Amino acid sequence: MESVGVREARGTDAAALADALARNRAHMRATEPYRAERYYTAEAQAERLADGGRRWFALEGERIVGAAILSGIVLGPFRSASLGYWVDGERVGRGIASLLVAEVLRASRDELGLHRIEASTLLDNHASQRVLAKAGFERIGTAPRYLHIAGAWRDHHLFQRILHDQPPPLA
């Protein structure tokens, strides 16, 4: 296995991302919302890459083997975002999620100036909960019927990581 590197997504990654998502469709079925067929195309992924979220990819060579996204980025006095991530089904348990989350936290603090990152997991997703705990997230609650996953509204544990306590920049 090649070593895994992490870098921020580029607009030219759409085809590789579509390939990775299609390759992992069955693996992610239990933890992801239902996706229409179009979602697995390069065209749909090009649109997602331009949607205002920030994404990072774990790569073995040019092959995407994991991804993290910051969505709902809010600046001003809130300075917060939501984190999501996934890892290729053939590479689970190799530290890739931890590598991705560490880089997202670094960029969130150092480049975006965010104060807080939130994340959620299905109640039984203990592997993801371990990744978040290792990265310094704390559980802050449980949200009933939080996301529609695998055909039903599912409860999720909610987590947050405070990155720093500096005041936001003055407008």
Task: List the keywords.
globular, 5 helices, 171 residues, alpha+beta
Task: Describe the structure in your own words.
The protein has 171 residues and is of the alpha+beta class. It has 5 helices and 7 strands; from the N terminus they run E-H-H-H-E-E-E-H-E-H-E-E. A hairpin with a 2-residue loop joins strand 6 (138-149) and strand 7 (152-162). Helix 1 (14-23) packs across helix 3. The chain is globular and about 45 Å long. The N and C termini lie far apart (48 Å).
Counting DSSP H or I runs of 4 or more residues, the number of helices is 5
So what's the oligomer here? single chain
Estimated structural class: alpha+beta
Strands across the major sheet, in which order?
1-2-3-4-5-7-6
In short:
The protein is an alpha+beta fold and 171 residues long. It has five helices and seven strands. The chain has helices at 14-23, 25-28, 42-49, 96-110, 126-134, and strands at residues 5-8, 54-60, 63-74, 80-87, 116-122, 138-149, 152-162.
Topology (elements, then pairings):
Blueprint lengths: L4 E4 L5 H10 L1 H4 L13 H8 L4 E7 L2 E12 L5 E8 L8 H15 L5 E7 L3 H9 L3 E12 L2 E11 L9
Parallel strand pairs: 4-5
Antiparallel strand pairs: 1-2, 2-3, 3-4, 5-7, 6-7
